[in-house]
Specification:
The structure is a homodimer of 187-residue chains. With 187 residues, the first copy, chain A, is α/β, with parallel strands linked by helices. In chain A, 44% of the residues lie in helices and 17% in strands. In chain A, the strands form two sheets. The first copy, chain A, has a six-stranded parallel β-sheet with strand order 5-4-1-7-6-8, sandwiched between helices. A two-stranded antiparallel sheet of chain A has the order 2-3. In chain A, strand 6, helix 6 and strand 7 form a beta-alpha-beta unit. In chain A, helix 1 packs across helix 4, helix 1 packs parallel to helix 8 and helix 6 crosses helix 8. The longest helix of chain A is centred in the N-terminal third of the chain and has 15 residues.
């Protein structure tokens, strides 16, 4: 049942395929936290090894979580309270384990098809019926680095639309995958 | 089959329920254009009566559509080419009619349930099997003003997640609704 989201800023690739650490984007913090809150995600990990970037992310969360910001928009505080800033994925896993009482499986996401990927329907069923915990891993920039992707427990099928264009923003990808896993449209 | 998206900046309501014209947000331009491109939307209308805001939106689209911007990231150009900036919904309808050869039904979206709303599954079926055209209407700020909402042809069921929290970003809402209407997850 438990579900976490991790947004990875390193190691990711840039448009030239080079390994980089991407910067934190303010809209990633807010949009993804609001999607996580809507779909009952237990924790939203922002993953970056950069200490100044960690400071920035925590500063933004604190701004909306305390004092004036919390009063101005309590729904924003509510969503951002899901955020935890960590240095790398092992730290996210260990924090998730402390929170959930079990180690989550890491499920990588990518715009490119990969062999033996899990379908969103299969993952939805396992979330609804099993007692396993999962953490969805999303990459910023042009996606999670291949070596990191290979090290994860599962990969999720890419989002397909109409045709070949597959350049959704990470914010849109998180929203769609959470809706596929947890949304309740009228039949 | 044809499907358009309109993002309305006026009349919308602010957090106090007051009617306002909201500002254009750069991420609304990019994220929503990329989602529209992924899910085969025919036109993405950015609706604002403010001439300086229209100028700004067109300037951003042109930046990525010509010269350096188009070379730097052709996929961005590709998505932003779906954008048309208009003053109000009647102008969007008339432009859509010119493009599609038929007047689209206007389908309002809201985070609040409304009587007799269309389910996303019903709309998906009508899009797949019928010869009608539809234009999804999304509000910025805290949503489309009630009078405008009442004037539209249909309203779409709200996105429900887990629990009562329904404060998705408009970017996330557009992504989820387009995926529900046009996405092709593995069964």
């Amino acid at each position: 049942m438990p579900l976490c989201v991790a947004l990875v800023h390193s190691p990711v690739v840039n448009k030239h395929g080079k390994v980089v650490t991407s910067s934190i984007t303010n809209f990633d913090i807010h949009d993804i936290a609001r999607s996580c809150r809507t779909f009952g995600v237990d924790r939203y990990f922002i993953v970056t090894p950069s200490e100044p970037q960690q400071w920035l992310a925590r500063r933004i969360v604190r701004h909306w979580g305390e004092g004036w910001g919390a009063t101005y928009n309590p729904r924003r505080k509510d969503a951002l309270s899901l955020i935890e800033v960590v240095s790398d994925l092992p730290e996210a896993v260990s924090r998730a384990e402390a929170l959930l009482g079990q180690r989550p499986w890491l499920v990588g996401t990518s715009a490119r098809p990969r062999p033996e990927s899990l379908s969103t329907q299969d993952l939805r069923t396992r979330l609804e019926t099993g007692d396993e915990a999962f953490c969805l891993v999303f990459g910023t920039g042009w996606g999670i680095h291949g070596d990191l992707m290979d090290s994860l427990d599962f990969s999720l099928e890419p989002i397909r639309g109409v045709g070949d264009y597959n350049h959704l923003s990470v914010r849109a990808a998180v929203a769609i995958i959470l809706d596929r896993l947890r949304g309740t449209p009228t039949a």
